[in-house]
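Hi Q.,

Before the meeting this afternoon, I wanted you to have the zinc ion prediction in hand. No need to reply - just skim if you have a minute. The sequence and ligand are here:
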Amino acid sequence: MRSANGSSPTTRSPLPLSAPASSLPHLGDASPRARVRVPLEAGAGQLVEARMLTFDGLADGREHLAVQLGDPGAGVPLVRLHSECLTGDVFGSARCDCGPQLHDAIRLIDESGGLILYLRQEGRGIGLYNKLDAYRLQEGGLDTYEANRALGLADDLRDYTVAAQMLRALGHTEIDLLTNNPDKAEQLGRLGITVRCTVRTGVFDNPHNQAYLSAKANKTGHDIRLKEKVA
Ligand SMILES: Nc1nc2c(ncn2[C@@H]2O[C@H](COP(=O)(O)OP(=O)(O)OP(=O)(O)O)[C@@H](O)[C@H]2O)c(=O)[nH]1
Ligand SMILES: [Zn+2]
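Predicted structure with the ligand bound:
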């Protein structure tokens, strides 16, 4: 069982989430392309060593990145699928929780051994400009999903085929998944990756991201334990 992180996630029961071998989808072959060592700032002046991997043959032709942390031989890896959030990951936007989630994942996975798959799926797949259009609509009172729909877009366009391809290319067909999002585990199961268990990420709430977090908890079944649910 995984240990809890500093923000008190818990490990849930094992999930029966793998497809039978006979029905495994053919995803197309991807293979590792380059593997480079990169020291990462992990807070409090600490550096952790990451290995960054690129791939040939990913299904959508985009540049997704695998970041390997900790002991690669430590058994079933702890994996986070982290969808790109330029505003949160790079600029530290407090409108969402992506930046602190990413940094907490680096720390936690460095301890456990595993991978962050950094997926180029900005704005849950709608792209940066559409996300900022959605932010404008949210300022008029819509929640994150209503704003997508007002733009004529689906709630969530993400497909995790490339994540399954990266995992298979690295020989990982069984993982523990660091997420609060049930769709990630379900999709990976259908794509032939056994999710042994999920580990909740911490809840990084602040006065600016309450509506974002409560919409995830109330509308898409994210396992987020907010102190107080905002309607
Ligand atoms: N469309 C849209 N996307 C947003 C908004 N706020 C954040 N995002 C995007 O939401 C995605 C968050 O991805 P993840 O960190 O993988 O989070 P998640 O799907 O909520 O699941 P877990 O963090 O794994 O529990 C990023 O791509 C952000 O850019 C928003 O208001 N609208
Ligand atoms: Zn974000």
